[in-house]
């Protein structure tokens, strides 16, 4: 596969990054994941905008313009023949000559930019969407700026492992009794015709798929309530689901061993997935 590194398109085995790169030493980097359906990028503008915000919150800059970024995404999708899959993009503070807690001078240290594609045939028609996900709840032990999409993903990765060990598919993180989000997705419950999801703040990532799904709620004849909900309230909900660029809308059928409804994907979550896929491709 062809990857992009600092201005060059290269075969993946020829791509090189310094061992002093601050992403490698300190997770000092931000990223985006954009899905591809029918060879086309989904919601590139939203991802580009969030990237800009992540960079500015960390006092970093992009080495390329948004137009150039779009062109690189398209070129990789073309070169790698991606019909359904993902484009991963990462920008880091770069590689100063040594390890230091102080940020390097941006005049002398260029940011590092890396992009690669992941081919995922059948992403839209995923069997997982028909089966639904089993969720466990875990304590949210991440840092306090979850609105910034950084590459510090150790705790979410540990959460995913805790879920796997428990025979589940993913974990919802809970803080002060309230659900924040999934390990790599936003979390929702449905009661009657109302979608309930945590309001935007520094506590969660401002999902691009979240914004789209909430926009499409009216089309599914559903109302939206943005508020905190507890894990106990979630277990009593009619339905639940998650959203992300790689999962789109994915129904949740079980939380901490408690089946929601009859334990199969709910009709409303399934309808929201359908609408999302129709509207965004
Ligand atoms: N994760 N919350 C967290 C913690 C996430 O990592 C993600 C995305 C989301 C959903 O955001 P969006 O709808 O913009 O993808 C919410 C990506 C897909 C990942 O880490 O692979």
Automatic annotation (TrEMBL):
Pathway: Amino-acid biosynthesis; L-leucine biosynthesis; L-leucine from 3-methyl-2-oxobutanoate: step 4/4; Amino-acid biosynthesis; L-valine biosynthesis; L-valine from pyruvate: step 4/4; Amino-acid biosynthesis; L-isoleucine biosynthesis; L-isoleucine from 2-oxobutanoate: step 4/4. Keywords: Amino-acid biosynthesis, Branched-chain amino acid biosynthesis, Pyridoxal phosphate. Belongs to the class-IV pyridoxal-phosphate-dependent aminotransferase family. Its EC number is 2.6.1.42. It catalyses: L-leucine + 2-oxoglutarate = 4-methyl-2-oxopentanoate + L-glutamate; L-valine + 2-oxoglutarate = 3-methyl-2-oxobutanoate + L-glutamate; L-isoleucine + 2-oxoglutarate = (S)-3-methyl-2-oxopentanoate + L-glutamate. This is Probable branched-chain-amino-acid aminotransferase. GO terms for biological process: amino acid biosynthetic process; branched-chain amino acid biosynthetic process. Its cofactor is pyridoxal 5'-phosphate. It comes from the Bacteria. It is an enzyme of class 2 (transferase). The keyword Cytoplasm does not apply. GO terms for cellular component: cytosol. Acts on leucine, isoleucine and valine. CDD domains: D-AAT_like. The keyword Ubl conjugation does not apply. One of its GO terms (molecular function) is branched-chain-amino-acid transaminase activity.
């Amino acid at each position: 596969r062809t990857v992009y590194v600092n201005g060059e398109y290269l075969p993946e085995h020829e791509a090189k990054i310094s061992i002093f790169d601050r992403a490698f030493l300190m997770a000092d980097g931000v990223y985006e994941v954009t899905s591809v359906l029918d060879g086309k990028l989904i919601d590139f503008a939203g991802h580009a905008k969030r990237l800009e915000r992540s960079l500015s919150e960390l006092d970093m800059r992009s080495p390329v313009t948004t137009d150039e970024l779009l062109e690189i995404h398209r070129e990789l999708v073309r070169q790698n023949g991606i019909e359904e899959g993902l484009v991963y993009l990462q920008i880091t503070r770069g590689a100063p000559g040594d390890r230091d807690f102080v940020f390097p001078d941006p005049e002398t240290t260029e940011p590092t930019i890396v992009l690669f594609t992941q081919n995922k045939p059948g992403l839209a028609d995923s069997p997982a969407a028909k089966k639904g996900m089993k969720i466990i709840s875990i304590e949210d032990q991440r840092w306090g700026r979850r609105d910034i999409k950084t590459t510090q993903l150790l705790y979410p990765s540990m959460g995913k492992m805790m879920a796997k060990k428990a025979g589940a598919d993913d974990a919802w993180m809970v803080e002060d009794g309230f659900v924040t989000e999934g390990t790599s997705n936003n979390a929702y419950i449905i009661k009657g015709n109302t979608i309930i999801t945590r309001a935007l703040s520094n506590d969660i990532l401002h999902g691009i798929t979240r914004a789209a799904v909430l926009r499409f709620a009216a089309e599914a004849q559903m109302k939206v309530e943005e508020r905190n909900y507890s894990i106990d309230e979630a277990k009593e909900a009619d339905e639940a689901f998650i959203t992300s660029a790689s999962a789109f809308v994915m129904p949740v059928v079980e939380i901490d061993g408690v089946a929601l409804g009859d334990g199969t994907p709910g009709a409303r979550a399934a309808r929201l997935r359908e609408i999302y896929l129709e509207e965004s491709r």
